[in-house]
Amino acid sequence: MTIRIIVAGASGKMGQEVVKLIERTEHFQLVGAVSRTYADQEINGAKYYASLKEALEANQTDVVVDFTNPEMIRKHLQICCAFRVSPVVGTTGLTEEELNHLRMEFKQANLGGIIAPNFAVGAILMMRFAAQAAKYLPHVEIIESHHDRKLDAPSGTALKTAELITESRKQLKQGHPSEMEMWEGARGAEYHGFRIHSVRLPGLVAHQEVLFGGTGQLLTIRHDSLNRESFMPGVQLAVEKVLELNELIYGLENIMEV
Question: Of the listed 47, 76, 146, 160, which one is catalytic?
Answer without folding.
Answer: 146
